[in-house]
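seq as requested:
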Amino acid sequence: MDKCKVIAVTNQKGGVGKTTTAVNLGVGLAQQGKKVLLVDADPQGSLTVSLGVKNPDELETTISDLMQIVVDNSILSPQDRGILKNIEGVDLVPSNIGLSSFEVSLVNTMSREFVLRSYLGTVKRDYDYVLIDCMPSLGMLTINALTAADSVIIPVQAQYLPAKGLEQLLRTISRVKRQLNPKLEVDGIVLTMVDSRTTLAREINALVRKTYGGHVFASEIPRSIKAAEISVENKSIYDHDRSGKAALAYENLTREVLSLGKQIKRHRTDPVR
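struct tokens:
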């Protein structure tokens, strides 16, 4: 397996299409022949449910159990890996509400920012891509994800307040890059739930692209009833509405993400300092 790329899909604001983006980008990469591991790093377990796990709280092994093994300096056996297979070709490290209490316990843990990186170091050799679905906050779990990641993808709803919150997130990414993970880069900002019929959405779109330049993916995810339905259907947009506009948008985003791995240098203005 070639070098694995670890991507944190993050935004401290909820409801911006973060989990939807993680699922559909992950499945999109798998459909392009890539081996993909999705990691649910959110105690709400939205990614886990979206991939068909009906009762996350009944799972024997979740990401919190795996990270606890790392904290305890125990050795991860193959039986401990806790990785679930999904029929759409991706693997999943699931999560549930137990991750909330684990995050609290991390406060008193040595090298607490590096626990997730240590776990991923034991499994990522089997994958081309690892996508981490972060919780909607800038707490210790998100810091763990940013410390473990090679890069970040930021879904942003094309509205005023979500776009305004970008600055705080980029400052956090910059701090992690300086203090914990010098290799961390921003792959791009993904505009989600775009309704090009409204003047406000067009203005926010233009503002984000003007402010962040080449850091914004060309692909935009349109507002779509079909896309909203997939979390209930427990399947990706490709399985739910293959020919729809949201599926096409995620296919385009997948191609953009794949192209990043083929470029030696991407010409863009870097907002992360």
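The chain has one domain: 5-260.
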